[in-house]
From TrEMBL:
It holds the Pfam family Glyco_hydro_35. This is Glycosyl hydrolase. One of its GO terms (molecular function) is hydrolase activity, hydrolyzing O-glycosyl compounds. Residues 57-83 are annotated as: Disordered. The lineage of its organism: Bacteria, Bacillati, Actinomycetota, Actinomycetes, Micrococcales. Transmembrane segments: none annotated.
Length: 882
């Protein structure tokens, strides 16, 4: 997690403006509220659930197992439970062939007295979760003499194996996070102080040779890798003998944490002497003109170090690009080393996880920086999964769009098997500063959870589920508290379970949310979101912005342009406008665009454009147009590549020329309107615009009040593009008109009397379907949905989400349609919650006799189906065969 959260005691900043101390104080572990027991019909433990879960076993092709690799012999099974096989296949997590939702809560055993471990685990299980997650801090387990205690010899709370065994005894799985970095507000982000004393060469030097202001290290420094291997020597065997494949509870292992985050937030590239030597060798293989670009490449070490640490403007632009790509290559090599080290110590047959950082200031706008930094470490690699790490506060019009885009962009770099996961899923009061300054709405974690599973997340780790106390350091360092963490004695103030074990107001609501997900697990663990012929274009190069020399004007110009025009467009205008009309979309990595399977090239892409755009991406966009695809472009006309050189591949294809961007000021207040139909966009104030001129049959569509064209509609090859070069806000009517004109039809049309209702659908391999509806507002709007031609009228309650069955097999019945959510499933009954409207209406197909209990409950037969109506919640009884 990066930087400021609203309500935190210190102000936040984004990107490289975030200071290290402020980041850490704002980032106090997010408490994940706990939940009440699973609803009737759900499972008590993961192992019982394996027997209950009756989804399809196997798949159309061989799933991805995680076979042991070469290395040290694996420890024997020692826990008396049958070994399980975990596989990743078609974006599902399967345990012994059964698709599962992994619903975890983070409990830091090292912050909880051992005598209370069982109680905290019981609270998590009572909340309905099936997995315990925890960091395993190197800082905590290493003693001053360099030895490592993982057995509790020096302190009971260091007995890692005992804690994991308690999880197993409670019937829960365990998600291990052994670092070496943990963050979690720990001193040195979880690394022992000894490392910095004994190996000063691992401390990064950044711009102008300045040492890093954070506890960051050179991850590929030989000394650090050797010390990490030594830590893995101690911790990995404890995990290995407890893997699910050997009858234990450990079902996944996270490697390190938020890799690259410290370097990003401090604007400190890793430019140690060793890293510079590696860069010098790396460049010729990755840039054909390396010697010409960098005159000091063949000079002595001192000259080379000065050229990189304090670059001249002549090579500052290419250096920015090369350093970003070099850093990503190094991160991938580091992760590969950690994985190999874990496997050599017996950790095989389970997925390895990478935690992606990037949210800050209550926004996900910077989250793809983490994707950019780390995707080479996991994308398309067998046995690797990525997980999000997000802190945005309550669900609103803004944050709901933000999170939808986050999931779409994260999935864009996955392969066809890798599912989404969320390794730090914010859930708690939000009072991270312990100042009674925030109390999240009860619906917050519920609405977020519903959105994430609808978009295909198979693992949610509610962080931090239980608070605790930071024990003292073994050796005082005189830093004001001499404890293992910066938060003082108490930790996890915002957690559903507080530091002393007390339940916060968020515990019960989160439990209800987890229980409802568990009840629908059979569908949610294997369903996929149904999508329209529409995608958001991901330009990963636009997020390689974490480093820029503070004295370089050319770096500042390029980075500023990229930051201003990326993702879903300024103010999320592209994504929010589409979502509020019901469009369901994913994202496409524009570096690796592939033609549609049917070869039609008809997919509509929404792309935020900056002046600087990589030549290869420009070529891909033109090829998409020429093949019959469509583009909706929002931003400035691309005219340069990432190094600032002229690059007009896309502009020339559009036949467009652009004047300099004009921004508003105290004396200039630009406004624009839709030229042909002001009802689509009347005169609207914008912060900037760019005048365009176009040749050929390009048609002006957006103009300023002074008549300057800033939007064009043009045909290219068999395709069509619309470029809007102005800072437009969200306008669902206009954007929807353009999307439909460009060929992006809607399988789900959404209209709400109040903006703030979101809807999508999921379908499983048996044809089961759910309509997901989220009302993130405090109002009860009139909502009309047209789903595949069928009209659905709803009145969703404020701050409420619904999982509405649309052809879902539940025991001896099939729920063909319902405007109320299933709240309980029994062998002879179904319970439905308060309807999303004045009366419940449930259509069933079943061979059983049906009766119903509830206010105004009525049962009728209609068109060969059973119709149940009621004035509120209703229980449907399924009796004898008719």
């Amino acid at each position: 997690m990066v930087a400021a959260r609203s309500g935190a005691p210190f102000s936040g900043a984004r990107d490289m403006l975030v200071t290290f101390l402020g980041r850490m104080l704002r980032r106090e572990p997010v408490s994940r509220p706990s939940c009440p027991p699973l609803r009737r019909g759900a499972c008590e433990t993961p192992m019982e659930a394996l027997a209950w879960c009756h989804g399809r076993r196997g798949s159309r092709r061989s799933p991805r197992h995680h076979p042991p690799r070469c290395g040290r012999s694996a420890p024997p099974t020692s826990h008396g439970r049958e070994p399980s096989m975990i596989t990743i296949d078609r974006r599902r997590i399967l345990l012994d062939g059964a698709p599962r939702l992994v619903l975890a809560g983070e409990i830091h055993y090292f912050r909880v007295p051992r005598a209370q471990w069982a109680a905290r685990i019981a609270q998590l299980r009572a909340a309905g979760a099936n997995t315990v997650a925890s960091y395993i801090p190197w800082l905590w387990h290493e003693l001053p003499d360099g030895t490592v205690d993982l057995t509790g010899a020096t302190r009971d709370e260091r007995d890692l194996g005992a804690f994991i065994d308690l999880c197993r005894e409670a019937g829960l799985w365990f998600l291990a996070r052994p670092g070496p970095f943990q963050m979690a507000e720990l001193k040195n982000e979880g690394l022992p102080y000894r490392l910095y004393r004994e190996h000063p060469e691992i401390v990064p030097r950044g711009w102008d040779g300045a040492p890093a202001p954070t506890p960051d290290v050179d991850l590929l420094a030989p000394a650090f890798l050797a010390e990490t291997d030594r830590w893995y020597d101690a911790v990995m065997p404890v995990l290995a003998e407890r893997l699910v494949t050997r009858g234990g509870p450990v079902l996944a292992v996270q490697l390190d944490n938020e890799i690259g985050m410290l370097s990003w937030v401090s604007n400190t590239p890793v430019l140690t002497d060793a890293a510079l030597t590696q860069l010098r060798a790396w460049l010729p293989a990755h840039r054909t003109d390396a010697a010409r670009t960098y005159p000091a490449l063949t000079a002595d070490d001192d000259a080379w170090a000065r050229a990189v640490r304090s670059p001249e403007e002549a090579w500052a632009a290419p250096l920015r690009v090369d350093l970003a790509r070099f850093a990503r290559d190094r991160a991938a090599r580091y992760v590969a080393h950690l994985r190999a080290a874990a496997e050599a110590r017996g950790v095989t047959g389970v997925p390895f996880l990478i935690n992606i950082h990037g949210t800050g200031g209550g926004s996900c706008e910077t989250f793809p920086i983490g994707i950019s930094q780390l995707e080479q470490s996991y994308s398309g690699i067998d046995g690797m999964l990525s997980g999000s790490d997000h802190y945005v506060g309550e669900m609103t019009l803004d944050t709901t769009t933000d999170l939808y885009v986050l999931n779409a962009l994260q999935q864009a770099v996955h392969d066809d098997d890798q599912p989404l996961t969320s390794l730090e899923f914010e859930a708690g009061t939000g009072d991270y500063g312990d100042g009674l300054e925030r109390l999240a709405e009860p619906s917050t974690a519920d609405l977020k959870s519903r959105l994430f599973v609808a978009q295909g997340n198979r693992l949610l780790n509610y962080y931090l589920f239980a608070g605790g106390h930071n024990p003292p350091l073994e050796e005082p360092v005189g830093d004001g508290n001499d404890r293992i963490a910066i938060t003082g004695e108490r930790h996890g103030f915002a957690a559903p379970i507080g530091p002393e074990g007390q339940e916060s107001p968020t515990y019960a609501p989160l439990g209800a949310a987890i229980g409802r997900l568990a009840l629908h697990e059979r569908h949610l663990a294997r369903a996929v979101e149904e999508l329209d012929d529409l995608a958001l274009g991901l330009v990963l190069d636009s997020y390689a912005t974490e480093h820029a020399h503070p004295g370089s004007a050319v770096m500042a110009e390029i980075v500023g342009d990229l930051r201003a025009h990326r993702g879903a467009g300024q103010r999320l205008a592209l994504a929010r406008s589409a979502l509020l009309r019901g469009h369901r979309f994913d994202a496409v990595d524009l570096r690796t665009m592939r033609p549609r399977p049917d070869g039609s090239g008809r997919r509509v892409l929404m792309v935020a454009t900056s002046r600087h755009l990589d030549a290869a991406v420009q070529r891909h966009l033109v090829a998409h147009l020429e093949a019959g695809g469509s583009l909706l472009l929002l931003g400035v006309l691309p005219e340069r590549d990432l190094e600032g050189a002229d690059c007009r591949i896309l502009a020339d294809a559009l036949g467009a020329q652009a004047a300099p961007v004009r921004h508003d000021s105290g004396r200039f207040h630009p406004s624009v309107s839709w030229r042909s139909d002001p009802s689509l966009l009347g005169e609207t104030r914008v912060p900037w615009f760019q005048e365009l001129t176009a040749s050929g049959d390009a048609r002006p569509v957006l103009t300023t009040v002074d008549g300057e064209t800033c939007g064009i509609d043009v045909r290219v090859g068999a395709g069509r593009a619309v470029l809007l070069a102005a800072g437009l806000p969200s306008r669902p009517g206009l954007l929807g008109h353009l999307l439909e004109t460009l060929g992006a039809g809607r399988g789900l049309a959404l209209h709400s009397s109040v903006p703030g209702v979101f809807a999508t659908t999921t379908r499983d391999e048996d044809g089961g379907r759910i309509l997901h509806v989220l009302n993130v507002t405090g109002y009860r709007p009139q909502v009309q949905i047209v789903l595949d031609g069928e009209e659905i009228a709803l009145e969703p309650a404020p701050h409420t989400g619904y999982l509405l069955a649309r052809g879902l097999d539940v025991g001896p019945a099939r729920v063909l349609a319902a405007n109320a959510e299933l709240a309980g499933i029994g062998p002879d009954h179904l319970t439905f919650d308060v309807p999303a409207g004045p009366a419940a209406r449930i259509v069933l197909e079943t061979p059983r006799q049906v009766t119903a209990d509830g206010p105004g409950a009525r049962v009728a037969h209609e068109d060969g189906h059973v119709l149940v109506t009621a004035d509120g919640p209703v229980r449907v009884h399924l009796g004898a065969l008719v």
